[in-house]
Specification:
heterodimer, A: mainly beta, B: mainly beta, six-stranded mixed β-sheet, 11 strands, about 60% strand
Chain lengths: ~110, ~110
Amino acid sequence: DAGITQSPRHKVTETGTPVTLRCHQTENHRYMYWYRQDPGHGLRLIHYSYGVKDTDKGEVSDGYSVSRSKTEDFLLTLESATSSQTSVYFCAVKQGLNQPQHFGDGTRLSIL
Amino acid sequence: KNQVEQSPQSLIILEGKNCTLQCNYTVSPFSNLRWYKQDTGRGPVSLTIMTFSENTKSNGRYTATLDADTKQSSLHITASQLSDSASYICVVSRASGGSYIPTFGRGTSLIVHP
């Protein structure tokens, strides 16, 4: 258990509203990641962080922003949610480059 | 294009039987390959990691192989148990700008029947 908590675990919201998902970790991992998982696709990287205030884009970053102001928290924001962003979102952490990623249990987001 | 293809897409076996899952990749430059197990409603959990120089790695009843020349990997599960029912995901990472960028396969859904 890598001490990862994702919140909320489930959320239903309307198109056009802002949404923020939180990933909280308790073990001081350096690297943090946000993925989305959709039927017919593998996990796809949205954004990742390699330190406080150090973030970079993944392959599906359009429509998403992130912030990491503290080591333990990595926030994913949908500024104006669209139905195409309905998905299961996973946060992952790892300590070093050659270490495995440890995943949270996901946030199921539905945008109507 | 960096891709990871897994086969079969789904598999049903009887408890106690063995099975083998396949992973082909085009990710470059290759850094490492991991197999993850994802139970329904949970996040993936790492089973094995293999680097370029390794061709076999075991973790209990799970044995992964890697052929870096043909860019293929397999995950063999021995004496399957009901708890092996899950999605198995192959992940290949490439080195990029001082970091490792993972590419995930779509997974193989394994169902073990009693």
